[in-house]
Amino acid sequence: MSPTGRDPDVTIGPTGPLDTEREIAVTRTYLAIDLETARRHRRAPGIAVWLQELRPCSTQDWRTLYAVVGARWHWHDRDSWSDEVLATRLNHPRISVHQIVRHATDTPETAGGFVELEQHSDGSVEIAYLGLRPSMMGVGIGAWLVETAVRRAFALGATRVWLHTCTLDSPTALPNYLARGFVAERSETYFTRLPG
Questions:
Q1: Which residues, including other chains, have CB under 8 Å from residue 37's CB and lie 6 or more apart?
Q2: Residue of 67, 46, 39, 58 whose CA lies nearest to 150
């Protein structure tokens, strides 16, 4: 935490109404990986960390991880979800949330990042969210996180693991997925408004 009591990894926006917004085009890319390709990729993290499942994952813990990891990448899709709606999702047996920990005492406030996996009825597992807190970027764990998430997904019995990323995400996200063996299946462009 910073001396002001604010987490330095969370981007704080303006407290009042936005004076200006800009519309931008965003490209979303869908990627997938098969089991044989995933088996060829094994990487140790650059620092001592592991992935710990949060079961149960409370709405407050999830919101903390979502803000710490996603604020700078404009992750706001679930900001409007009520605690009831979010809790229903988090308590579903096909959803699992995993946080990166460096010490046994790590909490969502201090976690290095997180992954949310969703098992689908077609046998696939989606990596719904995956990301690092800014202070953990560039220290050699991004590749490990992707590979570990994929292994967890296949351990759930996945026939296929997939995800999507977009041009609002970290510029290293897409290259990282491709380097881990993911294949781009399709892309689409949409428009969104961001603070100006």
A1: 181
A2: 39
Residue type, 148: T
3-state SS, residue 82 = coil
Structure tokens at 113: 């990042």
Question: Which pLDDT band, with edges at 50, 70 and 90, does 3 fall under?
Answer: very low
Distance CA 27, CA 131 (A): 18
Q: What pTM does this model have?
A: 0.85
CA-to-CA distance for 32 and 191, rounded, in angstroms?
Answer: 24
**Chain segment 94-147, per-residue pLDDT in tens:** 999 999 998 888 889 889 999 999 999 999 999 999 999 988 888 889 999 999
One-letter amino acid for residue 179 of the chain: A
Q: Which amino acid is at 132?
A: L
